[in-house]
Amino acid sequence: MESGRAPYVHRLFHDVYTGVDICQKKALPVGELNRLLYEDPKSERLRRTQAIAALMFQFCGMSFADLAHLEKSSLERNIIRYNRIKTKTPMSVEVLDTAQDIISRLRNCQPSHPDCPDYLFSILLGDKKREDESAYREYQSALRRFNNRLKRLAKALRLTSPVTSYTIRHSWATTAKYRGVPIEMISESLGHKSIKTTQIYLKGFGLQERTEVNRMNLSYVKNCRIGRV
Fold this sequence. Notes:
By secondary structure, this protein is mostly helical. The protein has a single domain (30-222), classed as Orthogonal Bundle (hpI Integrase, Chain A). The protein is 44% helix and 5% strand. The chain has helices at 30-38, 44-58, 64-68, 97-106, 133-156, 165-178, 195-202, 207-222, and strands spanning 75-76, 79-83, 90-94. Strands 1-2-3 form a 3-stranded antiparallel β-sheet. Helix 2 crosses helix 4 (97-106) and helix 2 (44-58) crosses helix 5. The longest helix is centred in the middle third of the chain and has 24 residues, at 133-156.
């Protein structure tokens, strides 16, 4: 499709398994996670990449796709409500105080385009309909750019572990699991063979409970010191 030899089909590979081998570890050690989220990379472009990664972590390990496609209407009274891009699962995340400044820095201030999504963050332009081929290509380009800059960020911060957009999500879940949070309350889709199982488990917990887990995850990583964990 990239070469133009095949026609664009919206969500062509939606039902194709894109999971990760359960034996392949993706989460960062907590000391490196601390540096990834909090150490100054001394580059404005890398600071923006770091800010996006920090929001993904502070939004309960939100995927890059979901973050990039959040619309301004998703944020209301300190709560983000959205449907996951991959599964259409309804989600809600309470915005922690520490995320407010980052949201302000990354917020999209451009006026919306007619019949196009009004994105919350300036990751995507918002000048294309979601189902258009050009919108799909724009997102893929944004994802590649983000992953490339994550690699540069990791190098600038002297991290030895590989870092991708998936690392943030997996690190959030692994941090919670390490802290003894019940498996049923974590985004354990990273380990479940069926996403329906995860959805069933997560339905048993309210927003307030999940917010407390998210807050404690952030506090644990922020206060850690290399060598202590």
